[in-house]
Design a protein that fits this description.
With 251 residues, the chain is α+β, with helices and mostly antiparallel strands. The chain contains 14 helices and six strands. The protein has two domains: 89 residues, predicted glycosyltransferase like domains (Thrombin, subunit H), CATH 2.40.10; 153 residues, no CATH class.
């Protein structure tokens, strides 16, 4: 298990094996906690954004609070359902473009063979950053599916300029652990995408969505979603408190 700081208050946590994850689940995750290995001395009550990953499987975004120092790091209290977090981590990660290819088959738009996806993956992986940015605005569906998994936030932002982008693709971008203020703002300011409930729900549950945007989205959600946030699905305590207050208005 290792961690890397990816922002002022953000870390990526990598589990290198299922046995490593199982050990952490027994000792900490089952009780809503997580050990964050880091040489940094983080003050108690510091709020952190996390991207938790299991090698060869899934990844999940989460938020947590530092609750105690440890000899090799800090102890965290993880927001939300850690059981659901474990399920997400243990899920198989779809191959690049796999979900989109399945949808394309249903739509009658599938490529001639899966070889096209594999070759597109190899080709895009070899592109420079600038080449990816130039492609993103005009990429086809399979290329967009691959680019949407890129760790470069600017690639995600540029994908939003693609005129062929679909709602399902915007939902995936809204869930991305690499979402930035710039990308979230572009989605929120687009009437086309912000009017889509699934897009708003994806954003409000993404720990990388700026708090001001999450609060704005909260007030556009139906009671069922607000109740879900109030019961522990919130990405911050402030959002949970706001959800509880809004539920009083539904009464």
């Amino acid at each position: 298990m290792r961690s890397v700081r990816t922002g002022p208050l953000a870390f990526t946590v990598d589990f290198e094996s299922e046995s490593e994850l199982a050990a952490e689940a027994r000792t900490n995750l089952s009780a809503g906690g997580l050990r964050l290995p880091t040489p940094e001395r983080l003050p108690v009550f510091t709020r952190l954004s996390l991207l938790v990953r299991l090698a060869g499987a899934g990844e999940a975004a989460a938020t947590a609070t530092v609750v105690a120092p440890l000899p090799d790091g800090v102890a965290l209290a993880v927001d939300g359902d850690t059981g659901a977090l474990l399920e997400t981590l243990r899920a198989r990660t779809p191959a690049p473009g796999e979900e989109v290819l399945a949808e394309a088959v249903e739509d009658g738009e599938a490529p001639d063979s899966e070889a096209r996806t594999e070759s597109a993956w190899d080709r895009l992986r070899s592109l420079s950053r600038m080449e990816k940015l130039l492609l993103a605005a005009k990429a086809d569906r399979v290329e967009r599916a691959i680019l949407a998994q890129d760790a470069d936030p600017q690639v995600l932002y540029t994908l939003l300029k693609n005129p062929r982008l679909t709602a399902d693709e915007v939902i995936r971008i809204s869930k991305s652990p690499f979402l930035t203020f710039q990308t979230a703002e572009a989605i929120v300011k687009s009437n086309q995408w912000f009017s889509n409930l699934e897009v708003r729900v994806a954003l409000v549950h993404n720990a990388r969505t700026p708090p001001a945007f999450a609060m704005r989205i909260l007030h556009t959600l139906p009671e069922s979603e607000v109740r879900n946030i109030s019961r522990g699905a919130a990405t911050s305590m402030a959002l949970k408190v706001a959800a509880l207050k809004k539920l009083q208005g539904f009464a």
